[in-house]
């Protein structure tokens, strides 16, 4: 069944080119459940055409309706919507006899799929154009206050750059000129009929469809002299209720932003899961097809810790692991802190692999005093060209950027990814994180990056676990900014799960509990909690070979205590030696 129609040169009241559906075209008998709420103009026009008999039950196509005469519609999309009974992009579904879509026939961005765009208009030199112009008159506009008249649709970026440099030479900085070129090129050349356009006003997101080409409007008010016709949906969506990924993209400060990466979220706005399924089944007729909007809604989850995990990690209680999970879920950043040998890094890796579903979602870095932003996130580094063998500085992604890009890929967004930062307190955190420090606290925002200039946000499924050795630098020295961004969990020999860890390990290995008694006696003689000795030193198989315990005590544990008491005149061997502790235990 093929419907037939033709595009008119005449424009409708809101600037879109009209479209005529020819008589004898098939019409779907039923509409999708969301049609009336998403596209009320097309829905009510369709009902009126049925009521007046211009669309009737078809004798040629059983189960379908049919147009009885030519029907003039306000745009190709409204024509397609009336026939199909659903929200649809008419510029893509109407095709010529040889299968070329309408938008390609017009010579605009051939083979480029439809994109969603953000265009800002709520504060154009102090005026909310969204409320006073865009929504009432069916427009989206862009201010080009000094751009000369006669700039054509589809202009290439190099030519546009020349015009902007000439017209804005004394009115805008170089940086502002570059931004203006990008915005104007997107509006004039990349945006096309059938694309989705979004804007924010009064705490609400409004969504519409571009229905025509750009025009350079001659008016005294230069705040809206570049215009495109848009068919806006009847109501907006509360900004605070939007998905976090969508909020991140909308927080970009450009006037025109490509929202393709969150297109699925936009397509699902205002629809329940059930409505999305019913719409897809009604349109495609195949319930097994993947629905992008539903895929984008797949919830991020951290698995519940199990008794099996508790046993593997030798933790005293599963409830303790659940609390760590809840802290990660609430804060997304967590620090495990304690003295040396308390298993901080081991526990961080094991938890990350369990919550993320495997080691592929885990990346570990170790901070040190010379570590910098360029090492951690991105920076220019010397690289050799494999062809010419010449060395040049190229922008290179660091471990955080690499993991963030992996986590934000389509299909990965519901899978937790973990960055483990070992020895997090051994570096200058403000220097390393830079503008990313802001993102650790405001996950629904984006920032402009220092080197690449990209708008960047931390993916919602990216978690950070740091480890902090309190003997190396006291936790009291951690600044308030880091305390506010991270949850802190202590691993100390004086408290569980560390206090009884060695004893549980010895029992599991079938060994005598004497080393655990010795460790408890040792820590009871160390006054400062940050310098107590963790059980990891005695959880190695070499310790239990002949002479292994004495060797470990002499070469691993006593040197730590000698450094701690340096200059105090304490006899380390007499106070902490293996013989002295064994004698005290009887």
Record the SSE blueprint.
Elements: E1 5-11, E2 17-21, E3 26-27, H1 35-38, H2 40-51, E4 55-57, E5 65-67, E6 71-73, H3 76-84, H4 90-93, H5 102-105, E7 116-119, H6 129-137, E8 139-142, H7 157-167, H8 174-190, E9 196-201, E10 204-210, E11 215-216, E12 226-232, E13 237-238, H9 244-250, E14 256-258, H10 263-267, H11 273-284, H12 292-296, H13 307-313, H14 318-331, E15 333-338, H15 344-356, E16 362-366, H16 373-376, E17 378-384, E18 391-397, H17 399-407, E19 417-422, H18 429-433, H19 436-441, E20 447-448, E21 455-456, E22 462-469, H20 480-485, E23 487-490, H21 501-509, H22 514-524, H23 548-564, H24 572-576, H25 578-584
Parallel strand pairs: 7-9, 15-22, 15-23, 16-19, 19-22
Antiparallel strand pairs: 1-2, 2-6, 3-5, 4-5, 7-14, 8-12, 9-10, 10-12, 10-13, 11-12, 17-18, 20-21
Helix pairs in contact: 2-3, 7-8
Share of residues in helices: 25-40%
Q: How much of the sequence is in beta strands?
A: 15-25%
Counting DSSP H or I runs of 4 or more residues, the number of helices is 25
Q: Determine the N-to-C terminus distance.
A: 95 Å
- Could you report the average pLDDT, rounded to the nearest whole number? 90
Total number of beta strands: 23
Helical/strand content category: alpha+beta
Low-confidence residue ranges = none
Q: Which value, in Å, is the CA radius of gyration? A: 32 Å
Shape descriptor:
elongated
For the largest beta-sheet, the strand count, sense and barrel status come to:
8 strands, mixed
């Amino acid at each position: 069944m093929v419907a037939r129609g033709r595009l008119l040169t005449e424009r409708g009241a809101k600037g879109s080119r009209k479209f005529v559906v020819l008589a004898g075209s098939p019409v779907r008998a039923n509409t999708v459940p969301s049609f009336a709420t998403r596209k009320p103009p097309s829905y009510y026009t369709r009902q009126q055409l049925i009521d007046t008999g211009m669309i009737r039950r078809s004798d040629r196509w059983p189960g379908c309706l049919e147009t009885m005469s030519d029907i003039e519609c306000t745009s190709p999309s409204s024509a397609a919507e009336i026939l199909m009974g659903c929200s649809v992009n008419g510029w893509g579904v109407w095709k010529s006899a040889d299968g070329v879509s309408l938008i390609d026939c017009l010579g605009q961005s051939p083979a480029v799929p439809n994109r969603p765009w953000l265009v800002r208009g709520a504060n154009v030199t102090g005026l909310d154009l969204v409320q006073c112009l865009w929504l009432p008159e069916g427009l989206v506009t862009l201010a080009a206050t000094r751009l000369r008249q006669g700039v054509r649709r589809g202009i290439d970026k190099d030519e546009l750059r020349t015009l902007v440099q000439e017209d804005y030479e004394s009115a805008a900085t170089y940086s502002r000129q570059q931004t203006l070129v990008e915005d104007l090129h997107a509006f004039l050349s990349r945006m096309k009929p059938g694309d989705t356009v979004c804007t924010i006003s009064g705490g609400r997101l409004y969504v519409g469809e571009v229905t025509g080409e750009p025009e350079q409007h001659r008016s005294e008010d230069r705040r809206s002299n570049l215009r495109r016709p848009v068919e806006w949906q009847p109501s907006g969506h509360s900004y605070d209720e939007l998905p976090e990924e969508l909020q991140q993209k909308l927080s970009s400060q450009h006037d025109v932003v490509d929202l393709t990466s969150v297109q699925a979220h936009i397509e699902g706005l205002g629809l329940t899961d059930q409505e999305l399924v019913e719409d897809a089944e009604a349109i495609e007729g195949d319930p097994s097809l993947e629905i992008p909007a539903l895929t984008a809604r797949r919830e991020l989850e951290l698995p519940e810790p199990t008794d099996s995990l508790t046993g593997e990690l030798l933790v005293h209680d599963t409830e303790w692991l659940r609390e760590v999970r809840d802290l990660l879920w609430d804060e997304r950043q967590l620090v495990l802190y304690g003295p040396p040998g308390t298993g901080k890094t081991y526990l961080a890796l094991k938890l990350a692999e369990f919550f993320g579903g495997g080691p592929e979602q885990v990346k570990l870095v170790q901070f040190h005093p010379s570590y910098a932003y360029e090492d951690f996130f991105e920076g220019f580094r010397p690289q050799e060209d494999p062809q010419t063998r010449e060395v040049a500085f190229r922008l290179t992604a660091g471990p955080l950027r690499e993991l963030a890009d992996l986590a934000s890929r389509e299909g990965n967004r519901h899978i937790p990814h973990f960055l483990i930062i070992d020895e997090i307190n051994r570096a200058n955190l403000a220097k390393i994180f830079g503008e990313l420090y802001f993102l650790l606290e405001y996950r629904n925002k984006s920032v402009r990056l220092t080197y690449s200039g990209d708008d960047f946000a931390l993916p919602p499924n990216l978690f950070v676990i740091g480890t902090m050795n309190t003997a190396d630098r006291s936790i009291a020295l951690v600044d308030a900014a880091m305390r506010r961004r991270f949850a802190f969990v202590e691993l100390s020999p004086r408290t569980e799960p560390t206090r009884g860890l060695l004893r549980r390990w010895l029992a599991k290995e079938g060994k005598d509990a004497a080393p655990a008694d010795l460790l408890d006696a040792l820590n009871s003689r160390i006054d400062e909690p940050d310098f107590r000795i963790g059980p990891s030193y005695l959880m190695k198989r070499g310790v239990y070979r002949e002479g292994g315990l004495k060797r470990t005590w002499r070469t691993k544990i006593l040197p730590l205590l000698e450094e701690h008491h340096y200059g105090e005149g304490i006899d380390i061997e007499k106070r902490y030696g293996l013989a002295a502790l064994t004698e005290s235990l009887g």
